[in-house]
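COMPLEX REQUEST
Ligand: nicotinamide-adenine-dinucleotide
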Amino acid sequence: MGFLNESAWTGKIYSDGWVAASGGDAPVVEPATGREIGRSGVADRSDLERAAERAAAAQADWASTAFDQRAAILRRAGELINEHAGELHEWIMPETGGTPPKAAFETHVAAGECIAAAELTSRPLGQVLPTPQPQLSIARRLPVGVVGVISPFNFPLILSSRSVAPALALGNAVLLKPDPRTAVTGGILLARVFEEAGLPPGLLHVLPGGADIGQALIEDRHVRLISFTGSTAAGRQVGEAAARNFKRVLLEMGGNNALVVFDDADLELAASAGAYGSFLHQGQICMTTGRHVVHERLKDDYVELLAKKADAMPVGNPLTEQVALGPVIDEGQRDKIHRLVTDSLDAGATLAAGGRFEGLFYRPTVLDNVSRQTPAYTDEIFGPVAPVVSFSSDDEAIALASDTAYGLSLGIITRDVMKGVDLAGRIPAGIVHINDQTVADEPIVPFGGVRTSGNGTRLGGDANIEAFTETQWLTIRGDVPAYPF
Ligand code: NAD
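STATUS: Structure written out below.
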């Protein structure tokens, strides 16, 4: 019996221990083979209501638990992820279709999220305010209470833990709803980690289910805050439901991120960075490079090099072959990718590489002769597709890179670093990397987007205090003042 103790949780949800769900159970499917590799529980509304009740009851004691005890549990959770990374990878790879480096990145960052959250417990949580009255006037941060976390399928362990860990660290209870396609990586693994780390009962509930459970989570009277990571379309529905129920909501949504390559760039390094930005984890990353905006003097050579790299990349089952790309998550996602590629070709783009698939294995694809109307350029693809457009002036580069509804991540490659800094202030983006591609994540940075990529939310480091607490104005006097009434 390994650390994950599969027999304890097969077909169950985590809600005060491993219990059978009223919603029944569902297969966990390996996209590479279509094989059932396990079963997870599926929560329904009654499971959710019970969990929320229990979480609310457990939260007060947790909030008053000494900060160093909370820190020790969070730190232990991070250590357990590192200690048992190999076993966790055995689920992450088949369930998400990830390669070994992708799985290693997931456990590394998820462990980092827990360790960073442990450190958060000892940060100052307020200010003493000037006041004209004979009193102590304090602004202090208190836990929100019960936090609902909704996470997606692509990097489920990171994207669940980056909300679950700081929310718990700051004294909240958490109801976690992972994507049902990745219930194990997005939920069950974390439940096992926190169970083993000694988190008191009732504080973390893992409730796999679809959009209906997500909506029920927002509506539940005990849940005060929702942290959602997913598509902009679903985020809009989550935001609307949260507003109707007067719930605060943290939205981390889609992106269509530009990599701007200037003509002073080293072509080989730029194309290598571009390939990584577009093809890592089959392009299923919110920060994926979705648009390559390349100076006209380099563009043709850049396309040729990127296409050569794409053609050389092995695609297949990461568990049985050494591959650069695994499968995409399901047929719906594959069909959406292929539709955007064929619509782009119909609209005049040309194929420099890829454009083909076998089963769920989509070849890394490079599109040339792309315009601002090309569907693969305008839409978030969430697949391994690299559309390339050219520009001739700085102003045109800025206009092209800004020409999107999104604003998550931006990469700028130039030897003129100060020009990069200037552009970083002029192209709307929550994250900018000068002389790097668009995909990066570290637990202590303020992660988030502008425009339709987010609602001003930043997750990570001290931004988590703002995200997962409420502010209370507290005054304290020695005596009740005399009033004229
Ligand atoms: P999705 O929006 O379809 O699903 C995300 C989660 O929301 C899932 O758990 C899903 O069950 C739930 N959900 C869906 N509709 C809902 C509704 N109406 N009410 C409540 N919950 C609902 O996203 P996806 O397609 O699985 O994931 C890919 C998307 O996520 C991409 O757009 C990507 O850019 C985005 N993403 C963003 C970030 C970020 O940090 N900004 C990170 C990863 C992924």
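REMARKS: The two ends are 72 Å apart (CA to CA). The chain has a mean pLDDT of 98.
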